[in-house]
Amino acid sequence: MEHNYNYDVAIAGAGIVGASVAWHLAKAGLRVVVIDQTGPAAAASGASDGAISVASKVQGPIARLASASLLYTEELARAGLLLKAFKRRPSYIFATSVEEITALDNLIVKLQALAGPVRVVSDGSAKMLTGLSEQVERLITLEGEGHMPGHQAVLAYLTTPGITPLWPSKIKSINSDSTGVTVDLGTQNLRVGYLVAALGVSTPSLFPTMPILPRAGQLIVTDRGPVGGLQGSLTAAAYLLAKTEISVKSLQPPVVIDPLGTGQYLIGSSRENHGDSTKVDFETVRLLLTRASAVWPALRAQRVIRAFSGVRAAVSDGMPIVGPLPDAKRIIMATGFEGDGICLSALIGREVALMVRDVASQSEFATDLAALSPARFLSARQEGVA
Ligand SMILES: Cc1cc2nc3c(=O)[nH]c(=O)nc-3n(C[C@H](O)[C@H](O)[C@H](O)COP(=O)(O)OP(=O)(O)OC[C@H]3O[C@@H](n4cnc5c(N)ncnc54)[C@H](O)[C@@H]3O)c2cc1C
After folding, report:
1. Which residues are near ligand 1 (CB < 6 Å)?
2. Ligand 1 centroid vs 95 CA: distance in angstroms?
3. First-to-last CA distance in the chain?
4. Containing H/E element for 111?
5. 3-class SS of residue 107
6. Domains of the chain (ranges, CATH numbers)
7. How much is the pLDDT for 361?
8. Residue 253 pLDDT grade (very low, low, confident, very high; cuts 50, 70, 90)
9. ipTM
């Protein structure tokens, strides 16, 4: 790359996606600056369930990319980088209604077609899991999935030589031309070779035509304590339907109960069509806790110590936006991961780094990634250029 740049690449956003891209680029020897208006994992990446789940992904490119990202996350854990952050654990998916039972049938078909690392190891009644309420009509146990708190992964990625952190520093505008990109930070301008826009739900503030909508979710954390020895996440099958076109209004809340390494339980997470993370929606929290304690009664003895909300970046067609802008190829979008960003972050970081280095076409994921290109929203108009 040219030497008159301040950095080879600027990453806009220190969430898990930006952090993963930064790590892959720094590892390839590029000089990377990561800019965030607040700090690392300040937005969705610090407020998520952290499930590395293939089962919950919509069939097609996203499920295939998630399956590959799960394997790659494990590889990074074995290599030491994500060792503390990533934990493999079983996933239990339960059904208490006809719609949820059908969702489990569809899940089995989807996982068979994927032939990836996640497999069904049992399919039966509530009796398959000690402590589960008998109101559960069917329970599937999966092996191969995992859990990774977003903030832990972000810190692991960013504490790497070759990455310059720059926060709190808000990007005001971005100008791209044929030789580089100028990033306006208000007090200074940076000249870089490429910019990766990993801005999550804030993407439209700099790229107004990107169809990203905020979608809030409520999360609850319990006190530490023995709550019946749940070894993995316990997820309502309604969660699988929440990402499809099937209406979930008639269903029970799509609750997930996740045992944390600390001995606490994380209970989440709803989907609301707004972006206000400053308030907890107590009615939704009540519904989540009611269903969680109905299926896992030992939770009733547990204290809730925290309730909070996070905001996902949802895209109008349900797919993330990843790839160079058609008319400003030095700007690469990596945004709109809604409820899948923790799971997809490892693979997307690697693939976006290849796009910056212009070798992405050799990737075995080129076809699936092409479906995520921002070109599907933009025609001839140059986006993101002031
Ligand atoms: C309640 C909830 C539960 C979830 N559960 C899961 C789950 O179980 N599994 C899963 O895979 N995913 C889950 N997700 C989704 C996951 O958290 C996100 O997809 C992921 O964190 C997105 O990461 P990101 O890096 O794209 O965005 P973010 O983490 O939102 O990062 C964007 C960053 O950009 C910065 N920024 C914005 N504007 C500017 C600007 N102008 N200048 C500088 N910096 C700026 C922000 O400060 C922020 O740090 C959940 C999300 C929520 C809210």
Report:
1. 12-18, 35-38, 42-45, 47-51, 150, 170-171, 198-202, 205-206, 217, 219, 268-269, 310-312, 335, 337-343
2. 29
3. 24
4. helix 98-114
5. helix
6. 7-45+151-210+318-376 (3.50.50.60), 90-144+213-315 (3.30.9.10)
7. 80
8. confident
9. 0.99
